Fold these 2 entries.
Entry 1:
Amino acid sequence: MSKKILPLVLGAAMGVAATTAAGATTLEDVKAKGFIQCGVSQGLPGFSNPDAQGNWTGLDVDLCRAMAAAVFGDASAVKFTPLSAKERFTALQSGEVDVLSRNTTWTMSRDTQLGLNFAGVNYYDGQGFMVRKDLGVTSALELSGASVCTNTGTTTELNVADYFRSNNMPYEIVAFEKADEVVAAYDAGRCDVYTTDASGLYAQRLKLTNPGDHMVLSEIISKEPLGPVVRQGDDEWFNIAKWTLNAMLNAEELGVTSANVDEMKASDNPSVKRLLGAEGAFGEAIGLSNDWAYNIVKNVGNYEESFNANVGPDTPLGISRGVNALWNKGGFMYAPPVR
Amino acid sequence: MSSTNLFHIRTEEAPHMAAPISTTGIIGWMRQNLFSSISNTVLTIIGILLAYWLIAPLVQFALIDAVWTGQNRDACLPQDGGHSGACWAYVKAYFPQFIYGRYPSEEVWRVNIVYALFLLLLVPLAIPSAPFKRLNAILFLIVFPIIAYYLLTGLVIGDWVVLPIVETAVWGGLLVTLVIAVTGIVASLPLGIALALGRRSKMPIIRTISIVFIEFWRGVPLITVLFMSSVMLPLFLPEGVTFDKLLRVLIGVTLFSAAYMAEVVRGGLQAIPKGQYEGAMALGLRFWPMMYLIVLPQALKLVIPGIVNTFIGLFKDTTLVLIVGMFDLLGQIQSSFTDPTWSTPSQGHTGYLFAAMVFWCFCFGMSRYSIFMENKLHTGHKR
């Protein structure tokens, strides 16, 4: 039902959005109110979750803070709206939030039919498998005959069916309604494999009795590129979102960190000079000041710093860079150059 | 031989024997109440076993195996592969958030004042023998909401910031639960009474409006009301006009429970014999004095259990606001589950146990108070 109603609702929303576009641009609105309103999840460990002090932390949260740093030079000029999966797109369309940074998968229908633009990918997620280490399995292709725990009625279940069938492996599905039930069943040994999005596997692993006894296999069987979303039809704001992410990636590639950004400003490397605004007027071209990227790195850090602080190997989640490493280190992360 | 052996006259009273041990004290009570027959004995044993099976693991989890102190998840991890107990250290770390949500910590004193004022005004209002009832009611129902509103949201006069603005988006935890529940309870009772009277009115327009209102709000689930108010309403409003999300929820919850309240009160009104109305009219009372002095006091007294039932239902329904992205107590607890710093196998159980205890305390309190009021007000109806 919701699938049929959603386009209608969003159609109405686009009508509203179109009328607002005639007024002020998102950047003008944001500058006038003095902060960015950022839509986040109601809690996804490592991506956007409130900590014990009530501050929002996570990879998605850092992106919004970076945008605030780019616009205002102040990473705290951002307010977070926790959104449920159902209300996230409407909230963006109705102008309730300026940017949606909420582990949202970039798909063609969302990009083209909802009046939205995806500004890039800040985390390449995908469905993975978790097994007990003592099972002695190192590859998903060795899972023939395994019983697989998963959620009912999601695409996860279909992906598993496709994967096992295409590899001619028999399997048995043990499906549950809620994520908590799936984890409990897997922990109790009712199945050999637990499958869901890889980021979710790492988060759920913490709820197991002995997290150290379990490992996430390297195979990823579906594409879930997660990224920030803005309203369609406001290219200026779209550029800011897109280049905020690119600036964080470029900073990592060029070795610019929040610790050394002040020294790097005097660097001889022309790429670093252009990024940090010592050369050229790239900030002005997207409607910001020329030290926009300097502010991002200074206040929030580059992509690597954000990754390591929120989901990296030293955090409880312990996610390795994998496909989210830079392109020159074997991953997919590739940002166009600043020039 | 001697005459004294022929007959015996007792010159003093026989000493009182203690009652047989099987009929007195704890053993007698148990024989009479727990083991009086075979079926009773079987039921007793089943009952004791059930209680043991339920309570023993709970005590084991919540008290014996529990972890009381710690800085992060390492403290609460199960030792050597066994099951871990409740992680109270996590509740302790998150306690301020469960009570205030993400209200800025330097402004939390404002919430504390509101909590204190609320208790200070509610307690004497609830004690029947306390003096100054009228003044107390005015303070509680009119002055307190205004003060609480400015204390919680902030006050800015021109450029002068008396109290910094705190948006409702950062409110959460028990604060949101109580704001919604108290507003809903206080506003829905008078609204419900008005609707109940309207539905029994002889004036067709008022009656029709009341019926349509009641049947509409009783016909839709609360979750739909909340969802419509948060997702659909912004699309219909002109650009720039935004209602506060909490305000939308408050209005939705109040109207929803008013419809239920109306039917409860109508039940009470129907139980009042026609003679009471006729007697009041014979005394020359007009409609409102008749209702205020004769009918409503009797009708409301009859339906106290129903009214409190609605209140308790409303209190628990506040947890539904999670679906529109507001964090009530339960929502705040659920959102804390996503913090990897405290993520352990026992975190979920501990959080839900804490939520259950808080909700139970409030609901049980309301229930006891309603029984107290029933006993106090019963004047000949009680069986």
Entry 2:
Amino acid sequence: MKLLKTTITTVLLLLLAQAGFAQPSNIEIDVPLRFDHYYDYSQVVEAVKALHEAHPKMTDTEVIGESEEGRDIWSLTINNPNTGKPLTKPGVYVDGNIHGNEIQATEVNLYLMNYLLTNYGSNKKVTNMVDRNVFYFVPSINVDGRYHFFNDPNTPSSNRGLRIPKDDDRDGLFDEDFPEDLNGDGSINRMRKKDPFGKWKTDPKDPRIMVRTEPGEMGEWTILGQEGIDNDGDGRVNEDSEGYVDPNRNWGSSWAPPYVQRGAGNYPYSGNVTKAVTEFMMERPNIIMVFAFHNTGGMFLRGPGTKEEGPLNPQDVNVYDLLGKNAEKIVPDYRYLISWKDLYSTYGDFTEFTYNQVGAFSFVGELFMSEQETYKAHDEKESGDNESSAFSESTKQKRERLQFNDHVVQGSLYNEWKTYDHPKYGEVEIGGWAKMSSRLPHPFMLQNLVHRNASAVMYAAAQTPEVSMEIFDTEKVDNNLHKVRVRVVNHNAIPTMTYHSVKNKLFPKDRLKVSGNDIKVIAGGEITNLYRDQVRYKDHKPEIQFFRVPGNEAVEYEFLVEGDGRVNVEYKSRKAGKCSQQTSL
Amino acid sequence: MEKPISRGSLFWYGMTMLTLFFMSADVSAQNKDGDKHYHTPSEINNKLEEIRKSSKKSTKIHTLATSPGGRSVQMIEIGPEVDNEKKQLPAIFVAANLEGTIPISSEAAIHLAELVISEQAAQDKTWYIVPNGNPDAAAHYFKNPLLKDSRNDLSHNDDMDENTDEDGFEDLNEDGFITKMRVKDPTGEWRPVEGDSRLMKKADPTKGEKGIYKLYTEGIDDDGDGKYNEDGKGGVNVNRNFPHLFKDFTETGGAWPGSTPEVYAIFDFVYSHPEIAMTFSYGATNFSKVAPKGGRKSSADFENLKIPESFADQLGADPDKTYTMDEVIRMVEPLAPAGFEVTESVVASFLGLGAVVNPQSEDLKFYNELADQYKEYLKEKGLDAERLGPEAAKDASFELWSYYHLGIPTFSMDFWRLPKPKKEKKDEEGSGLTADKIEKMSSEEFVALGEEKIGMFLEEIGAPDQFTAKRVIGMIEGGQMTPKRMGTMIKKMGNAKGSDSSSDGASEKDKALMAFNDNVLDGSGFVEWESYNHPTLGEVEIGGEVPFVRNTPPGNMVDSLLKAQVPWTITLSEKIAKLQILNHEVQSKGSNVFKITVWVENENYLPFPTAMGKKNKQPRPAILSLQAKGLKVLDGKQRTPINSIGGHEVKKYSWLVRSPESNTIDVNLESTHAWNDRTQVNLGGSK
């Protein structure tokens, strides 16, 4: 009888179930895309296909790999074929949702794709950056995680990793004790039990909040952890849930094993998705700018990920600073930070790989700040106080966010505490923040978030190297000998390659080559001082020179050319395209 | 074109012919043995196939990967469970020749596979044997010219110019070997070693030495960039591509750990086979003889942790003090969200502590004990002659990865090194003669030395038997030979006894090389410097050691070396942890409540797992479980993990259960890599 009652309650609750705000059902995926809701995995695929169908010439889609559970990982490339093939242009790579629960990262990707494509031809800045660059998107990396986050009950933070089983409780069984959505509301919340010996008491200002008891006080609540039962009967609840391999600790740069870095996976690229993305990127050596979106905290993070790697070279830091400081202004209250120093050390994360192995300036965008869920008068002070820490928000912040939930989003982000008859604990209460909350914005704030963050990417995309070359001087030295001077100019802030990749010989530097049927280059080298006519000659093969062009700078070369007739000067860069000019001697 | 000459034999030949002219002599390189003691990667794969055919029921061939050069990396599985995907028995994984430059290690792996079958060593376990972990590099040994290069065939633009793999080596003197070129150059940093002018060393200005030569590898500047052979074919050394202590941007390590398919395939295979209880590497190191080395500077001292200032405040810690891992965990716990477990690994990654870099002291105990046993064993086999020591394991090698990341007993064997050069005798002890001294003597002075002294000297320099003192004296007296010429020729032979200053300045390794070359290889291990007209460097001399001489014994030595040493692998394999239920006891507490006690023993020598394995928690625990109808566990876990049991250790596990008295409880001991066991506990009967 009791069981029946529980079942009926569960069914009723299921009908009302909402893991947060209401998501529209059966929406048409149409270009231009809408950003008043979140796209589940199949809708993401549909959106990518729709963008491609709407702009078939400018886009290309590709399934770059398959997840552990067999889902396709889609990419979309935006390139204007009239301005050249993709590999001849600076590549801007954007992805998101490497952590399965960090879903709005995908919406930033979709928004930017949609924005670039729908504004192309009408907005001058967009048109220019699309013509000059190629954009690569992998909007959802952890596709299994996204699928399960939408379809299964979760906490705002669960379902982060890859679907690679792990025996967390070391009992020889894998992933056998998941949390359960006992009350069927679509979220995994917390369980608490009335207990005068508990360590927690009710907050006098908001009974939904619990605060720690002070010494000398009796308690009111014991917190029993996440909603669920002891599936494997080992006396512990929810201690061996899905995974855990963290796909953002599974990359091959400064990777460390799991006992050093939790979630690293057994070896680099043991996850299908990390391997697939790596292969995708290694085939696109023109990528020079990377944004990987995550949630949460409101940050633009750059490397290094660990202290051991030492500081980055000042030449690269200058570029990061320019982009990072502008991103801070584009997205209010977000901070530009150094990963290991300002946050914590991470081994084997994605941007470590892209900076070290792809040679790209790389940012992690941590989307959303719960502090922006405000409920306060214009003259009230900031809600933050020194009670908060890197780990948890203060009681004051919690109260304000609950008020925001009550009055701004009409209670849709929080599941009120409700009693439940737990098979092991007896009568407990289950409640807390809904799955679709806390780390991602209510849809009414989504448009703002995706636009501003997409703009941070567009700012950087507008700064990718734009190189021009001119033969600025040809002087006859002798009957059969000419001095040919060439200037290569980078008109934008991002250099043609990172200093780091020069230093570590990641790939050949930009190349300048002088050729012609009836000529011979006798000498050649960099003009170190144009006005004083100082040239640093290269000992061997003077007709080929290697260099990088820093941002907003020019490099100049001089060649002593014997013979006459046509002289062809060609510049070629892995990441900044190529150009050439001819002259006759 | 002149071929390299065997100086030892030629000298005496020349003497016999009473001529001082060098003549060319045909010397077959010791490595190109006619008897086929060494086998190409594809021949090795054929051998695996032969072994498979010979015992079809207990063998299986796996293709792990295809190398960048298109060669297949094969593995033979030998054992009673070849048809089962999931194994019940433990397994031994053996990877050979990951460096690709140690041909004997591939032969050893084949020998092992045959031995495992003939000795029935695979009755209670599975063997996975990869004889050629780096087949691209291994193939070099069988090509002309002979080149020692550990890199596989991945193309890589080493010199960062406009072309890839465009400036490799050339065998300019067509002797079949890639050796060295030396060029007299006032800016050169190199000079010949005083004691043995064949050897080169870097001039040490602090000792007043001046460089005379520039040294290059043999070849031309194909791409005209002023550098020689700086961008030949070749990418990654397979045995530098594993993750422990991997460094980015090294010349041969590859882009990231596992970037090369040979290594990624090993990761993939090993981690999906938790039955692997032990690994061996056949190659350059020898953990069977010398324990893995420690003494590295580590940031991961879990007993003395420093809290960075940025966190110290929040944690209430003093940034100037050190804390133990447990203390830090207790500091972090109250700050962590409810339900979040703060573990060592969480703290380690949070503080950026990095990896363990030194072997655990508990593990060194068994390494050292087993090394002593191995040395005894070698003595019995008559293989205790002093040889140069094995190489230390390199950063990012298989051996280090296996020990530190897998956390299982990891051994390696190198099979052969050059004999240690004999300590040079003081002049008084021997003939007291050197080539230098002889050079300065008149014919009369030489003859006056007498037959005995001259005979002793001839013996010291390894002269063939027919060159008796009497005969040499006769040649001098007859004028066909002068002491000066003789001294010069002996020095050219490069015998250690050749000159007064002996081999000062040469390393022990180089001395060993030259001694082996002179005394055993008849000179075929070293190419005499000879002049060559180089297209861009002009007059150069080409010469130097023949590739592979240092680690590749002459073919006729291979069989006996392997027969003596390879069986030790099987001996060690018998020491892996074996868990069994030793005993059990039931104590009735009344009201159908029983206390059940089970004793589990590791009946073998090696611990379950290694101390490193305890730390990294990579080896899976064994599980002791109780099963019976109507059984309720009141205290204890129904599935109890056994995280560790030392060698020959017994551990006790107990439960309080409630169960019908008539019940029989199945006690199962399951382990992925230390065998399984089971017993039944009768609640009613046994006491």
